[in-house]
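Researcher: Before we compare anything, I want clean individual predictions. No alignment, no superposition, just each chain on its own. First chain goes here; please echo the sequence and then give the structure tokens.
Model: Echoing the first chain and its structure:
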Amino acid sequence: MSKRRKLWLARDSVTCALVPLLLSIATLNVSPVRAANIKAVSAQHPVTSPEARAQLQRVLEQNAPVLEAQATVLKTVSKLIGATVVHIEADVPQQTLQHNHDRHVETAGSGVVVQRKGRFYVLTNRHVFRNAPVGDIRIHLADGRLLHPVRALGDEETDVGVLAIDSADLIASPVGDSDRMEIGDFVLAAGSPFNLSHSITFGIISARGRHNLELGDDAVRFQDFLQTDAAINPGNSGGPLCNLRGEIIGINTAIASSSGGNEGVGFSIPINLFMGVARQLIDSGKVTRAFLGVSLDAKFGPAMAAELGLTRVTGTRVMTVTRGGPAEAADIRRDDVIMKLNGTEIDDDAHLVNLVGLIEVGKKVSLEIFRDSKTIVIQAEVADRSKFAL
């Protein structure tokens, strides 16, 4: 029986022991070694003769510049984003049922400074500061200054957190486009794992569109995570995931681990999704959710799929259409099977609900629908969920 992996939010408690650090070098493309006359050497038989060692040194001098030139990109990105990454501590109130009074738990995480409309904000995860008063949230800048936010905003359903800050000489990080990231793209993760602030790790995007992750008590309802093998550990929550241009393309949030530490599977909120929620929080202090206006068949299975003309179960079946809703306006009908949303294949009813909930209100979406043994494409404009009595 396979062992089920536990998913952890990548926050940390402030009290922790220093752990040994292992520095590793990522292997990049190298020109072929032009030393065919060098004999193969195993680890059990080290090279000791001066002539052989001198020859190995010449081979290194010939090939090392290739790796060094490519590594310059990583060092440059690290310097660029380093000045914008912050360490966050918060005294989070937690009620104890036994004594019916509040106690405070000190948590720690990471964040990154951005600028919007002339003002500065720290992007992080809501679970890093949760319901802590702004006076109990401490933001440590890269230059050593300590700030308290003037506003703390968060969305529980996506774990997006925004801290408004006001100070002189702040440095903001550029924001990239997470929709352009593909599996295999190189990324760097920055943050404060185990309270070791301003740490940088390197990896790739290993998957996209991860959802239905069980994140313990901190349920994140709407999920569309980027997956990365860049090392993410407790304390990395809220830190940026950056591309090789030094742009934020994600906010690190959780890890899949059987131990609570990094095992090569980390999850980051795509920055396009994050900023869509963050803009609403900044502008209005709340988040409105998109609404398509369909009820779906949670029991859609092989028998119904075959009856509708499908060769296998895929997508989700429409059971009813809300009167006056976006689906009715787009002529979506009962027994339509929604196969794709904006090019993303739909796994089931929960997947479609999740994706719609992440779309900004008023956006037009493309729906690929199976109807009468044919595939058609329909455009619909999602509405404000709060405007419909559900």
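Researcher: Okay. Second chain, same rules.
Model: Second chain and its structure:
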Amino acid sequence: MTGHRVPEAEYLMSMPSRGGPPPQTPSRSRSRIRNLAALLLAGITLVLGYGVVESWRVRLERVVVRYQSLPPAARGLTILQISDLHSRANLRRNREVAEMLSGLSADLLVITGDFRQAGGSADVALQGASIVVDAVRGRMPVYAVSGNHDLQPMMGQLSQKGIVVLDNAAESIRPGVWLAGWNPYVRGHPSLDAVLGRVPNDSFVILLAHSPDVVLGSASARAGLILCGHTHGGQMRLPGCRPWLTLTRLGTKYFHGLYPWGAGFLHINPGIGTTMIPLRVYASPEITHLTLADAGQETAMGQ
């Protein structure tokens, strides 16, 4: 009797491979995919949770701006800077900022644009600004410039709430020290040269602008200190890395903090609020306290 013979191809497929892993069953593959999906979902949830928490934690950053030769009139000047409030209806961040400002002292407070949320309510922006200004009212003057999300009628109303709006204007804040503001978001705006042309040549100039791109104009070299916002510090980035996006022509190298620029300095505040995604990752909202100091004078006093 002839025994049943297994066809060669069928026989080879039924033999276990030598030296390699056993073939995966469909159920094992599906289990691995489910595990990877669960890990990915957990990671996304963790990042989102961290981003929400960080976006509500406003920090205070103290910065000493040291010059090799600072005019005596500007020495010791202290400035509080906030930017990009992007007020939302609950006004929670505005109240937190106001609470922090109520315990701080300075010669002046500057707000470098974007009171309003992108596409948001001007009324909410005005309410949010009022909450912030009330925290320092009577203790220091408040100056501001417009951001790219701010509306001109709204800025006019802000001036009635105790904010000096320096859109394309300049004002003396101390003998020999001038504060100037730049707003390129209105039609027919004057050149920065024209704005700074109103300032005496021997004065120390502090320039307010929403976007740090203001430094790309040669006229900005006139300023000893340029204060900006707009970048949100990148809003979402990896620790120790540059952000992916700053929405500036300067690129991602300049996104947050103090940078030497020309004969002076550029300071970029990361802002308070958020746009598009209400999250911040390694880009905490910040109130900056800046002190202008003369390095040579400090050295002499230390000897």
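Researcher: What stands out in the second chain?
Model: Confidence is low (pLDDT under 50) at residues 6-15. Additionally, The CA atoms of residues 234 and 243 lie 5 Å apart.
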